[in-house]
């Protein structure tokens, strides 16, 4: 703030900033065809210099604030508290004597106090500081005084503690009764231990010999095998015309092509006077998985005879598996059955017969055509 009769001095010229002065722009030349009567546009006036902080008018931050007094009224005095009642007198302790109190340790020698250093006093604050307000907390009411309880009669003195009982030495547990003792001068005979190796040996023999025998007996009884076509089987007669012979040769070629590990192949066409026709073909040779071979044979003939879902037929012979399915050939219904064991495979196409009759007839044909080394 300046007095009323003084005025602030004119702002000083800005100080040198270190940058070069910008020369005034040159007059613009008249373009070709431009009229000379249009006066040139005057240059804009230079921008005024920025106002410096020291040239601004100071502002009083406490202007309009009441700073007359900072004293606050004193807090109200707390309410008076009532005195607590005196504790009732206790009866003397009549129990066993207390253990002796150990003597207190000797006091430690006083340690030298460090010299005090006088620090300069802090300067007083520029303005008065109000004391912090005193928080008033609620005071709980004094407990209600009760009349002292009547004194109870003194109990009888306790009996002195008994001396601890000493445990008796327990005798070791009794051992088993002694057995027959050897005569004097002879060593006792050791008990004979029971040996278990015969049972283990029998189990090993059963595992090593039983499993191969279970799977090896069907293979040995069904391989090797031989096949021959009889002239008559039940009411069936083997046809010997040229068409039947050509069909049999074609079937043998198909069997050789599908089962190239077969040792021998056979095929024939049988018929009855009533018009039933049975075409049978197959081959001989060792087969390790006859069940899988029977399913593969039905799958091979599915497209040729338009077979439906195959049915499993129980043959009653371990190691022999049979499958049958219904299809169509030459415009009439047919039943295709195949029977496979470890030594041969036989497949037949039946006309004008049911599935069960076809499966039974294939078993009869197989017994007449295929012979093993057991017969």
Features:
375 residues, alpha+beta, Protein Transport Mog1p, Chain A, eight-stranded antiparallel beta sheet, two-stranded antiparallel ribbon
Question: How would you describe this protein?
Answer:
With 375 residues, the protein is of the alpha+beta class. The chain contains four helices and ten strands. The longest helix is centred in the middle third of the chain and has 26 residues, at 197-222. The chain is flat, with a radius of gyration of 65 Å. The N and C termini lie far apart (142 Å). The model has no long low-confidence stretch (mean pLDDT 76).
> What does the overall shape look like?
flat
Note the gap between the termini: 142 Å
Helix vs. strand class: alpha+beta
Mean pLDDT: 76
Please trace the helix and strand order, writing H or E for each element.
HEEEHEEHEEEEHE
Strand content: 5-15%
CATH topology of the domain at 222-372: Protein Transport Mog1p, Chain A
CATH class of the domain at 222-372: Alpha Beta
Q: For the largest sheet, list the strands in their spatial order.
A: 2-3-4-5-9-8-7-6
Annotation field: number of helices: 4
- Proper CATH architecture of the domain at 222-372: 3-Layer(aba) Sandwich
How many strand segments? 10
What is the radius of gyration computed over CA atoms, rounded to a whole number of angstroms? 65 Å
Major sheet: size, sense and barrel closure? Answer: 8 strands, antiparallel
Taking pLDDT < 50 over at least 5 consecutive residues as the criterion, the unreliable ranges are: none
> Helical residue percent?
10-25%
């Amino acid at each position: 703030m300046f007095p009323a009769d003084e005025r602030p001095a004119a702002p000083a010229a800005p100080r040198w900033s270190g940058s070069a002065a910008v020369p005034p722009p040159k007059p613009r030349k008249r373009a070709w065809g431009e009229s000379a009567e249009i006066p040139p546009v005057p240059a804009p006036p230079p921008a005024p210099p920025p106002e410096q902080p020291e040239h601004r008018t100071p502002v009083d931050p406490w202007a309009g604030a009441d700073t007359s007094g900072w004293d606050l009224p004193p807090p109200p005095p707390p309410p008076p508290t009532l005195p607590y009642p005196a504790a009732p007198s206790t009866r003397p302790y009549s129990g066993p004597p207390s253990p002796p109190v150990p003597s207190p340790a000797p006091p430690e020698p006083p340690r030298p106090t460090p010299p005090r250093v006088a620090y300069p006093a802090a300067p007083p604050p520029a303005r008065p500081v109000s004391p912090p307000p005193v928080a008033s907390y609620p005071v709980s009411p004094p407990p209600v005084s009760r009349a002292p309880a009547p004194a109870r009669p003194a109990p009888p003195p306790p009996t002195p503690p008994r001396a601890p009982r000493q445990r008796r030495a327990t005798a070791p547990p009794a051992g088993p009764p002694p057995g027959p003792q050897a005569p004097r001068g002879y060593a006792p005979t050791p008990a004979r231990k029971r040996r278990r190796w015969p049972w283990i040996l029998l189990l090993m023999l059963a595992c090593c010999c039983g499993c191969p025998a279970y799977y090896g007996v069907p293979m040995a009884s069904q391989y090797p095998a031989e096949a021959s076509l009889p002239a008559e089987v039940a009411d069936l007669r083997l046809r010997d015309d040229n068409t039947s012979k050509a069909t049999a040769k074609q079937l043998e070629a198909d069997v050789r092509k599908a089962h190239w590990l077969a040792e021998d192949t056979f095929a024939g066409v049988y018929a009855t006077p009533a018009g039933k026709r049975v075409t049978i073909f197959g081959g001989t040779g060792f087969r390790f998985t006859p069940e899988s071979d029977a399913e593969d044979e039905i799958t091979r003939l599915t497209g040729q005879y338009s077979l439906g879902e195959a049915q499993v037929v129980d043959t009653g012979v371990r190691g022999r598996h049979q499958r049958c399915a219904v299809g169509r050939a030459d415009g009439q219904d047919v039943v295709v059955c195949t029977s496979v064991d470890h030594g041969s495979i036989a497949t037949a196409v039946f006309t004008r017969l049911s599935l069960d009759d076809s499966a039974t007839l294939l078993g009869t044909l197989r017994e007449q055509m295929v012979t093993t080394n057991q017969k």
